[in-house]
């Protein structure tokens, strides 16, 4: 009985439900963005990286919270120094998720990810793993990839 209230006869989620879900996700993202804007991760309110805590090595995501904080404050060079990979890949991720969300909101189905060849996400995964290894090499130029505060 509840299924008829959420889905139409073709099995697609009703547009009203998609709008409500989208509004909820938007509110959560807005709240997270506002929290990050007003609370610097360096002040102890950020997420603690379990990989760095346990091993002392930087993972591919180390510095991402500080980088997002810097981006929100228009400090793009500082964001790049915290996590260069995130700064380079973030616009593409935002564009991808925005396109998928718009397709889902309008059509009830998202078609973009079905059409992406498998080699693209595999290449991104391999690139992230290599980045995670290379940023822990303690000699120049690899030390530039470690999360660094610009003076």
What does this 3D model show about the protein?
By secondary structure, the protein is mostly helical. It has one domain. 63% of the residues lie in helices and 0% in strands. The chain is built from 8 helices and no strands. The protein has helices spanning 2-6, 15-38, 50-55, 64-72, 76-82, 84-107, 112-115, 119-134. The protein is globular and about 60 Å long. The mean pLDDT is 89. InterPro entries: DUF2752. It comes from Dorea ammoniilytica.
Q: Over all CA atoms, what is the radius of gyration?
A: 19 Å
- Beta-strand portion reads under 5%
Largest sheet: none
Total number of strands: 0
Structural class: mainly alpha
How many domains, as an integer?
1
Mean pLDDT: 89
Amount of helix = 55-70%
Distance between the termini: 61 Å
SSE pattern, N- to C-terminal: HHHHHHHH
Number of helices: 8
**Unreliable segments of 5+ consecutive residues:** none
**What shape does the CA trace take?**
globular
List keywords for this structure.
151 residues; mainly alpha
Give the topology.
Elements: H1 2-6, H2 15-38, H3 50-55, H4 64-72, H5 76-82, H6 84-107, H7 112-115, H8 119-134
Helix pairs in contact: 2-6, 4-5, 5-6
């Amino acid at each position: 009985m509840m299924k008829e209230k959420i889905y139409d006869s073709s099995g697609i989620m009703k547009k009203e439900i998609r709008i409500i879900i989208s509004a909820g996700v938007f509110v959560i993202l807005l709240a997270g963005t506002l929290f990050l804007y007003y609370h610097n991760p360096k002040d102890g309110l950020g997420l603690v990286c379990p990989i760095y805590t346990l091993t002392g090595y930087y993972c591919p995501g180390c510095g991402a919270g500080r980088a997002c904080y810097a981006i929100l404050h228009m400090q793009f060079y500082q964001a790049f120094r915290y996590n260069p990979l995130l700064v380079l890949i973030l616009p593409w991720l935002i564009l991808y998720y925005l396109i998928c969300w718009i397709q889902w909101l309008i059509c009830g189905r998202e078609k973009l990810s079905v059409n992406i060849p498998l080699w693209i996400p595999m290449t991104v995964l391999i690139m992230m793993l290599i980045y995670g290894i290379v940023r822990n090499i303690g000699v120049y130029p690899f030390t530039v990839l470690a999360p660094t505060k610009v003076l």
